[in-house]
């Protein structure tokens, strides 16, 4: 994420030691780590919430598609039930008799 090497970390530590002082530097590091931890935790919560919402949307789309297919099948079956079967010609019935 950040392209920080070991040399940059040493420079930041020396500048922090000079600016903050050796007495307050450990407390400042703990405070910075706590803020960083809170930031990451909040970011991860937001990320998981967005993923959960996207998953819910996908599930809802899938349910709607399944319902549409089910409704089509019900309509097709209803149409088949309402239509009487076509009468078979007499020739077909004669062919079906056992001899």
Describe this structure in words.
The protein has 99 residues and is mainly alpha-helical. Helix content is 81%, strand content 0%. It has three helices and no strands. The longest helix has 58 residues, at 25-82. The chain is rod-shaped, with a radius of gyration of 37 Å. The mean pLDDT is 85.
Could you tell me the mean pLDDT? 85
Unreliable segments (pLDDT under 50, ≥5 consecutive)? none
Strand content: under 5%
Tell the overall outline.
Answer: rod-shaped
For the largest beta-sheet, the strand count, sense and barrel status come to: none
State the helix count. 3
How do you describe this structure in short?
With 99 residues, the chain is mainly alpha-helical. The protein has helices spanning 6-20, 25-82, 90-96.
SSE topology sketch:
Layout: H1 6-20, H2 25-82, H3 90-96
What distinguishing features does this structure have?
99 residues, mainly alpha, 3 helices, rod-shaped
């Amino acid at each position: 994420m950040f392209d920080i090497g070991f040399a940059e970390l040493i420079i930041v530590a020396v500048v922090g030691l000079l600016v903050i002082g050796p007495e307050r530097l450990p407390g400042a590091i703990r405070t910075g780590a706590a803020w960083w931890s809170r930031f990451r935790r909040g970011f991860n919560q937001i990320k998981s919430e967005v993923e959960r919402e996207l998953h819910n949307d996908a599930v809802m789309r899938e349910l709607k598609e399944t319902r549409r297919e089910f409704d089509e099948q019900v309509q097709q079956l209803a149409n088949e039930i309402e239509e009487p079967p076509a009468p078979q010609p007499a020739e077909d019935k004669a062919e079906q008799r056992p001899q």
